[in-house]
Structures are given as C-alpha cells and as structure tokens.
Amino acid sequence: MIVDKKTILRAKTKLGDKNALLIAEILGVEKFDSRNLKGLCPFHAEDTPSFIYDKKGYYMHCFGCGKTVDVIEAYMSTGRTFLEAVQFLFDHARIRYNFGEQGVKTKRAYRYPKPEPLGDKTKVYAYLEKRKISQKTVDYLDIRQDKEENCVFNYYDTNDVLTMVKYRPSHRVDKSKGDDKNWCQKGADTTPLLFNMNRVNTTMPLLITEGELDCAAAIESGYLNAVSVPLGANNYHWLEENWDWLEQFDSVILCSDNDEAGNKMRKEVSTRLGTWRTRFVELPMNIQDQPIKDLNELLYYGSKEQVLNVILNAKENPIDTVIDFADIQAIDLADMDGIQTGFKELDKALFKLFYGTLTIVTGINGSGKSSFLSQLVCNSLEQGCNVFQYSGELPAFQQKTWLNHILAGRYHVNKYMAGNIEYFKVNPTVQKDIDKWCAERLFIYKDGQSHSPQDMLDTMEAAARKYGCKLFIIDNLTSLAMGSREKDRWDNQENFVRQLISFAVKFQVAPILVVHPHKIET
Ligand SMILES: [Zn+2]
Predict the structure, then answer these.
(1) Which of 92, 144, 333, 398 sits CB 3.0–4.6 Å from 152 for a disulfide?
(2) CA distance linking residue 38 with residue 53, whole number of Å
C-alpha cells in the first residue's frame, strides 16, 4: 500500500516542534536542548551540538556529517518498517488512517514463499562480517541463514508481506566452478520488488543500489533509505512493478557498479525515473591501488565515512545539451585565435575572424568582393595561416592571376605586348619567389571537380587535417550544386551552412562563405 504523502506532511505539521522531541527521544540524542531543539549528533562523534531541528522541514539535520532524520526514519532505525513508523507518527499526531492492507497478501493466485526459519546465523554473520557488514545490519535487513548455510534475502512488499526470497552462498562465489551466484526460492513465485523497500521513508531521498550487499553497505554506513534492485543491472522489470511507489520520491540517488552494465543501468534508470530528480553516486575508481567496483567494496577498502560521503554528495544528472553559465570559461578576445583581415577598419569592428566561426561575405557584382578576398588570402598567408580556396566561377589559372597581382605588388607587375595588345604579367623571377613563398600553404580547389556540397566539405576536412588550412574561402554558395528543385535548394543551402558552422567549430578554422544578395534594391 502507498501512504499518501500529503497526510504524512499533515501529521508532521500538526506535531510541529514535537517532531524534534520525538526524534531526540527515539535516537537518544545526548545534551538535547529542548528549547533550541538541538543536541549532539548520534551519527558522528562531537562535543558541541550540531544536530539541529529544521522547523520548516520537520526533521533534524546534522551540520557536521550532513545526516537528515525525520520521525519516520528515526523510528524505522529501531528496526520498524515504514508502515509501522507512519502509524507511530499518525498516532502521535492523532490522525486516523486506514492501514487495512498491512500484512495482507494482495496477490491472487500467487505462490508466496515460505519464510526460512529464524535460526542459527553463524555462517552468514561470519561471511558478511568479512565484507564489513555487521550483525546489527544483517539483523536490521532480516538477512537469514538456510539449512545449507546460504544467505537468505527476504523481499517484503510495501504491506510488509514476504513476497520473494533470494539466496546466495555464504562464501566467495567462484563462477568458473559453475557456482550459482544467487537464486530464488524453489516452488514460489517471484515479483521484481526492491530489497528493503518496506523500510524506506518515501518522504526522503531514495538510494537505489545494484545488489543486496551494496544496500547493506549503505545501511551499515548510516544511510538507511536504501534499496537494491532484485535481479542485477540488466533487469529493469522492477521499474514497472514498483512504478507508483517510485513515483512518490522527489529525489532518487543511483548507485550502480563501476562497470559497463552499471553505466548502462545508470542511463536507463535515470531516463525512466526522470533525470530531474535523479542523482548519481560517484564511486572512486580505486583506493590504494585497489579498484572499487561497488559500494560494498568502498566500505571494504575504504570506510563507512567514505560510503556516506559519496551518497550524500551524489552528483547531479547533467543535461548533456546545456552548460552552467558559471562553468563557461571566460575568454579574453585577445587570447582567442583567429586571422586578422588586415583591413584596419574591419579589424577594429571584428577584431579577428575567430576560429570556430563562419563569416558570410556578400555584395553585388563589381563591388570588389574578389579583390577583398584575394587581399584576405594574402594577409592570411602573411600571418602564417594556410588557405583553401574554392571559386565556382574562376578557373584555377585566373585565381592565380588575381592573387599574383596582389602578392607581387605593383612594382613587380610588368606590361607586356602580344602583337599590338598590351597586358600585364608578374615578372618571372618574382613569380618564382611567389610560388616558393606560397608552396604548401595555399590550396586551390581543382578545376573540373564535383560541386556537390558534401564533396566540398570532404575536401575542406581533408585540407584542414592534412595541410592545416585555417582560412577557407567558398566563393560562392550558388555555384555549389544545391539541387534543381527550389525547395531542395533552400533545404540544401541551409544544411550546408549548418555543416560549415560545425566544420568551423570542429576543426577550429575560419571559413568564409560568399553569398550573392538575393534581391537588389535599386
Ligand atoms: Zn552528524
């Protein structure tokens, strides 16, 4: 059964400060000051009281070790179940509530397991002691021992009814010898409940672990609101089975193993339970060179304090697609890499063509776009930045002519005569110097190659990787093959621009896309 959380809150509100008195009495808080409602924390050693009542939350909180306890949890810590603790709370608050389902077997035609008799536990105590789990915790979790000296894990449902019984050997399991690691009671049905779920306070954060002994490790360390999934990391049926119960928690902490299955479980479970309320326990990779696989190993090689610490400091579940403003590195523009255009006024306005950004150059025909771009290419080379250039309208030799004239400067461009026609050409010795200076730094897209956007991007990627090109000039958007149907054309153009931006970011380069104005206002 599920006890309405609103009624629980109503009971706590009705009790008011009496919550603190009850908690202090149940836990035997030393030096309890009933006026200021604080005392010595029962969960860690201290001389000055830091275990203080929170009037708004109706719980006691320790500012030393971070532990939070309400009446329900305090009462449960004495070995009671959640339903018993809620009854205790309701009785004190004089709230009537129907606990009719408590202890009632509600599943029809279900073969409930037979409880293993509570007898000798020597072997189980000894084995779990080796794993740093005390007799107190073994008894708290009602772990028993069967005739074959195996550990017995009792799974109770939320009505405190024994619904599933699981076993495991009380010694190290050697899978290579074909030992069974665990099994359920023969002749009984199974339901994927959560181990220890009937001793969980639904108004507090829930810790979900990957195995009974990890759950035991959490409890041993003082974190009582813990359960274990029933059938390992790869089985998620418990989510469906306990959905309504799980829906009650405002906060869930996941502690899966430090392995592939554990990572998968973490992802799957947080997605299904809701990333906004799920946090993760970050286990240390190793302690003193000892790799840490799960919570029980952290207890074994580390300490109770370390276990409690990783649980209380569980990490938020980040949304992969956002970043905290505070985590964004502040950047000094002067430190950002990029290419200066060499045009004073433009550099004043833009600072640089920053790597990782796409620049669009536009202007009507004859407005000097090509001269501007050629100048930019030369300035880029001068700054030691390699260049890739694509011109959809000029063949390679004409691109060379444009660039030559700028690279040579007017004193090295001579007038020649072909018959009675005069033309200009770079002085051949200077041409050699220019070619030498540009060699392996300036790359022109070959004539006769594909004009498909994808081929262009592939070539640019190769030029960025192989030649380390930083400036990419794509002149121009309409000369690329964007499809013949108008709708395709817009989609493909949009897509190409997006890809260019990703390309700029991925390779930290500065692409320039030349775009002709769509309509010219006269
Ligand atoms: Zn404390």
Answers:
(1) 144
(2) 6
